[in-house]
Fold these 2 entries.
Entry 1:
Amino acid sequence: MVANWRAFAACGAAEAGAAIKADGYGLGARDVLMRLAAAGCRHFFVAHWHEVPPLLPLPDGIRLSVLHGVTEDQMPSALVLPAEPVLSTPAQAALWRQTGRPVEVMVDTGMNRLGLAPADAAAISNGLEVAVLHSHLACTEEPAHPLNAAQLACFAAVAEQVPAQRRALANSAGAGLGPAYHFDLLRPGIGLYGGGLLPDGRPSQPVFRLYARIIQLRAVPAGAAVGYGASFVAARHSRIATVALGYADGYARGLSGVGWALAGGIRCMAAGRISMDLAAFDVTDVPQLAEDDWLEIPFDPEAMAAVSGRTAYELLVALGQRFERVWR
Ligand SMILES: *Cc1c(COP(=O)(O)O)cnc(C)c1O
């Protein structure tokens, strides 16, 4: 993960931050923050205010931004937490102006999701001390899409009019569009966690391995079915491992029949439907396996996305809380 972050930090003159919203894309936001901060990352992004307290205390010199801005009822906690909002609406700007504190501002340059309208950005941010001016790109996974260049031109024009200490436009894939898109600060997320590409075009390196334990091993005769819906029918006399891993752990139901475990270097296919807490793997070809053994469950986010019909983002953020996370 640190190597992935360094690829962003080294890709140009811009500083690399890190998006750690949604519990660090499922990996554990506080652990991600501490490790990337030790590597030199200074600027982190979450979406909600309630994502801030579990990250505290922050190491010295760390800046934390809340991408969803701030509402009136969130103001009291916003003022005591060591984080600052990324303002997106005129109402949020009016609330914050009274505080006199530095803030970040999002401008919508064509995605039509969050952010001030480009034409209003200068007037609305007047009287605010803008530490970072942000925008977000809609089509970075299609480098040739004309909206990329249009958003870049729009952002550059707004940045001329809104005095800001720093400017930030690119997420992970946006950094790969080239230095013109980098400005002062990058906001990579998925590229830190093993999804998508690094700015130099290499795939992001996988950052974790999943292991799950065999609760029971059973002999299943040819013609017998396994799991809900009896969707897997053994074609041969089989040995089936029932493993403590299910869709409540983020092992998506879409991996039924297409996911696999690795044991002794052999690929053991998921047999039948993944259920909430359990999955079955056909381990017929690995006779040395025993109950209580651990199976490695390969979970390269892009490879799993390709077979499950989900994106690497969806798969990562769904990983859930039941894994014991062991950091090395
Ligand atoms: C989530 C998010 C990012 C990170 O995007 P990735 O595609 O995961 O790199 C960057 N900027 C904003 C505004 C985001 O919401």
Entry 2:
Amino acid sequence: MFLLLSFTWIIAGITAEIPPAMHYRVKNSSLCLHIKPPGYQEYEWLFEKDLIVHSKNIKTKYKDKVYYNPKNGSLCITKLNETDSGTYSLSFINSDDERAIETHKLIVEETVSRPFIRSSPLHFNLSADPCNITVNCSVQGDWVCSVCDNNSCTISQRSLFSKVNITIFLHNRVIVCSGNNNVTKSNVSESMEGMCFGKSNPEPENVIKNRHLLLG
Ligand SMILES: *[C@@H]1O[C@H](CO)[C@@H](O)[C@H](O)[C@H]1NC(C)=O
Ligand SMILES: *[C@@H]1O[C@H](CO)[C@@H](O)[C@H](O)[C@H]1NC(C)=O
Ligand SMILES: *[C@@H]1O[C@H](CO)[C@@H](O)[C@H](O)[C@H]1NC(C)=O
Ligand SMILES: *[C@@H]1O[C@H](CO)[C@@H](O)[C@H](O)[C@H]1NC(C)=O
Ligand SMILES: *[C@@H]1O[C@H](CO)[C@@H](O)[C@H](O)[C@H]1NC(C)=O
Ligand SMILES: *[C@@H]1O[C@H](CO)[C@@H](O)[C@H](O)[C@H]1NC(C)=O
Ligand SMILES: *[C@@H]1O[C@H](CO)[C@@H](O)[C@H](O)[C@H]1NC(C)=O
Ligand SMILES: *[C@@H]1O[C@H](CO)[C@@H](O)[C@H](O)[C@H]1NC(C)=O
Ligand SMILES: *[C@@H]1O[C@H](CO)[C@@H](O)[C@H](O)[C@H]1NC(C)=O
Ligand SMILES: *[C@@H]1O[C@H](CO)[C@@H](O)[C@H](O)[C@H]1NC(C)=O
């Protein structure tokens, strides 16, 4: 009884001490997992609780999905899809003759598509300054709304679902919307000039000058 207890304590101790290694991959790429110190014995690869490789043979279900090198134990998972996200574990006999587990967590994400930006002045008023612009930037079903004044953008509303981290900011009087996940990022920008008739916009002055020329 005491032996059994201390055994489970050791197992729990081992699994709790080593956090899973995180791996982020873009869809359709691949991930290779290696056995770090050679000398591990009787290793087996599992996906969740499912054996991928057993007695150095790839299970039929995984034949089109993985490459396995029986010499060094390396496992490569190919043509990654969201459905391949999850926990991959290596079960092995370590140098102390104990069965141990090493876990790897894989997250497969799509390439972030180009954000779609829509902006309009909040109030179209020649004499009002500063000019505020509402911006709605959407990426793959997620969106963020911000109000941008002449020096910053403030989030006013956002969608609940968030596969993509969306940020809207100003860079040299250009509104930039950037979307990223853990594997890729993409941005679009739109100039604030011409959207507002503020002090920094020379357009009204030009109109007056031109009128002068025509009259003169
Ligand atoms: C996945 O990658 C392979 C080559 O690595 C390519 O031939 C194929 O077109 C890609 N598929 C998609 C859906 O991107
Ligand atoms: C194991 O062998 C494969 C193919 O021969 C190779 O790509 C991989 O890098 C090797 N793994 C290690 C840890 O050397
Ligand atoms: C890839 O993942 C998507 C989303 O999870 C799923 O609908 C699709 O069936 C998967 N494709 C394959 C080939 O497994
Ligand atoms: C435009 O802004 C000025 C100053 O903020 C304000 O006095 C005026 O009423 C506004 N005009 C309109 C049409 O909103
Ligand atoms: C933004 O507008 C305010 C109010 O008109 C003005 O005081 C400030 O200088 C402006 N800032 C920039 C960076 O243009
Ligand atoms: C425009 O933005 C400024 C600064 O954020 C704010 O004080 C002002 O009330 C806003 N004006 C309108 C019409 O939303
Ligand atoms: C922002 O744009 C998205 C996509 O076009 C739309 O679904 C969403 O309702 C918009 N949000 C607001 C507050 O208008
Ligand atoms: C979200 O995007 C902002 C700006 O690009 C960045 O600073 C932040 O680290 C991102 N957060 C995550 C979780 O990727
Ligand atoms: C990156 O992945 C973690 C999960 O490991 C998730 O919580 C986080 O939101 C992701 N960040 C982005 C920007 O997608
Ligand atoms: C937008 O993306 C491009 C690459 O596509 C990058 O060179 C540029 O620095 C990005 N702009 C900002 C403001 O992040």
